[in-house]
Specification:
Elements lengths: L1 E7 L2 H12 L6 E7 L14 E7 L6 H16 L4 E9 L2 E7 L3 H5 L4 H18 L4 E6 L2 H23 L3 E3 L4 H11 L5 E6 L6 E6 L14 E2 L25 H4 L2
Parallel strand pairs: 5-6, 7-10
Antiparallel strand pairs: 1-3, 2-3, 4-5, 7-9, 8-9
């Protein structure tokens, strides 16, 4: 199955470029021609580049090579270039892949939705090639850690509001990992409880006050707690790490 597409003026140059980028040798991959290069009418005029494919060989192509090729190909079709910087086994069955790109803000997307979609597609394609592989987690510009801190701060501030007013609050839709962060942030607070609501992958978390013998029952609030209406939340690593509006995702804009 194809893991990388290369444009070059001849097969030799295409193979060299592809192998250097993937960090492997020609014995661990297969090489094929998608479209031959052309030298123009009757050999005259400017020569146009051909398109060449590098395919993975099941059981022979290293996992790191497959991942690098798949991610690069997906983002290339989206119009972005990327460098795969590192692979770290964060826990059993999970592999953290760190990316680097000048288009980090686009790749992350609003609330990390684009990065999540890229992660889903990468896992789907890699599993199809290898039939089995660790769960691949993608990170860029330390987004995962910043997002986690941001969500836990939202949980803390919303919990304080619920305790103060007695009104429950419903957070924006979150994926399973992000919902777990909210639950963990408030699990030691005996005065509030959290419950997931909704169907599908993205569910909302409701935070409400635990009824006390001498206190009135918590009021169900209708207002959603979003990252826009919660207020300006500051935390150790900076403010909202999304980068959705930070087109170039530069450091001076990252912590705004």
């Amino acid at each position: 199955m194809q893991i990388l597409e290369v444009q070059a003026l001849d097969e030799k140059e295409a193979l060299k470029q592809g192998l250097e980028y993937l960090g492997t040798d020609e014995n661990s991959v297969e090489f094929s021609v998608l479209k031959k290069s052309s030298s123009g009418f009757f050999g005259l005029g400017q020569k146009t580049a051909g398109i060449y494919k590098i395919n993975a060989i099941r059981g022979k192509t290293p996992l790191a090579v497959i991942i690098r090729g798949v991610i690069s190909t997906l983002l290339k079709h989206m119009g972005y270039s990327v460098t795969v910087k590192d692979y770290v086994n964060v826990e059993e069955g999970k592999l953290m892949v760190t990316l680097e790109s000048e288009y980090a803000g686009y790749i992350i997307g609003k609330h990390g939705r684009t990065l999540e979609a890229l992660q889903f597609m990468t896992n789907l394609i890699v599993e199809k090639i290898t039939t089995e592989q660790p769960k691949i987690l993608l990170d860029i510009e330390n987004y995962r850690e910043r997002r986690a801190q941001h969500l836990m701060e939202i949980a803390r501030k919303t919990g304080e509001y619920v305790l103060r007013t007695g009104k429950s609050r419903l957070l924006d839709p979150l994926n399973p990992y992000e919902r777990r962060l909210i639950h963990m942030a408030l699990q030691d607070n005996e005065n509030v409880k959290t419950e997931s609501e909704g169907n599908g992958v993205y569910k909302r978390v409701r935070i409400f006050r635990v009824a006390q013998p001498s206190a009135p029952e918590a009021e169900i609030g209708n207002e959603l707690v979003t990252e826009e209406n919660l207020g300006n939340i500051e935390f150790d690593a900076g403010k909202d790490p999304e980068g959705a509006e930070d087109i170039e995702f530069k450091d001076e804009n990252f912590n705004r």
